[in-house]
Request: fold
Amino acid sequence: MKKRADLIISGATILSMDADLNIYREHDLIVTDGKISAIAAQGKHDWQALQSVDAHDCIVMPGMINTHSHLPMSWFRGLADDLPLDIWLNHYIWPLEARLLSKSFIYDATLFGAGEMLKSGITMTNDMYFEMSAIAEACSKAGLRALISEAVIEAKMGADYRPSLFVLKYEEQFRDQPLVDFSLAPHSIYTCSSEMLKRCADAALEHGLLIHIHLSETAAEVENCLSEHGKRPVHYLNDLGLFEAKCLLAHGVHVDSSEMEVLQQKPVSIGICTDSNLKLASGLAPIKSYLEHGINLSLGTDSVASNNDLDLLGELSNTAKLHKALNHDPAFLPAIEALKLVTINAAKALGVEERRGSLEVGKDADFLIIDTQSLNSQPLYEPASQLVYATNSRQIRDVFVAGRQVVKEQRLVNLDEAELLQTAGRYAQLIREELGL
Ligand SMILES: [Zn+2]
Reply:
């Protein structure tokens, strides 16, 4: 008697990213009710499914998890490049946001960004922006998992703003939308007062929410914190009690060893944003030192306004090679360890490692099928190396989230790409007019 499944991915090389980093060759991945029910040698099992997808000559890996993004910034891609961070923010991004942002602007841009993420193999993102409900609706439609937070900028929201009230409201409102969840995001130490940061810490602890915050992206941010509060950012936030809650610290470029000694005792992870930091010349996160301190690391794309794409696999390749060079050590951050930054360690960073981040029985069926029958992927000796050093994201053929196909043969299943491109053109026109270009 055969056991019934919904879907069988057959004959794949499966990079599980489980605790033993098992790689299964010519195996089937079996999916039932959105979860992985078995990983078994091809044909040597008694599962039967209505749908099956051939994955011979393909690598199947966990869906990638992006730990720092701003999805609704899609329309700002390439708008004001090659500028210092403060000028880019103060002269372009923030004034445009003040004039243009609306629920529909955010919904449309998120839908576009979610499509781009899925095609790039990202199945979950940790996003910070405004209008959480518009982001949640767009991600649900696209089929992208998202942990969504409202960027708390005190000058915009007012000192009385109670972020936890909104998070709880949206958790209730989107209870039946399983792909989205919510967290708390005091934007940064330079946009929130000590009182607001404390309030966020207390609320996160009380309601078991993740805190998502930008930390020490630039040297100037650290200097300002020292002159305003007499302490470096990590010591300042630690004294406010922020790190009692689970935190995702985005960037973490300028963090010294005294700060790492604090972080290693706390439930915090870093979201490294290599491409954004390179492009804005913010510096490079001290990955080696973080790892020596046992601090959990993950990767984030940041927004397309500073990256300028959502190609997390490309970002991973850049990060791995750059830090070998910086440390004068080709053995530093081997490919399989690098892959943890976008899979299991990213899941840990967001507190979802029990459900995602690796391909194991009982976990969510979030995975990618990557075609290796291309000249740049052959011959194939070592799947992890091939993924990090030779594969590009255009080889991501199929993407599944919760067992549902969201990218099929490199086309989005839930969204119309021609329509997304048309919408992009419309917003580009609007922004050109706004800037008098
Ligand atoms: Zn950011």
User: Anything to note?
Assistant: The chain has a mean pLDDT of 96. The longest strand covers residues 3-15.
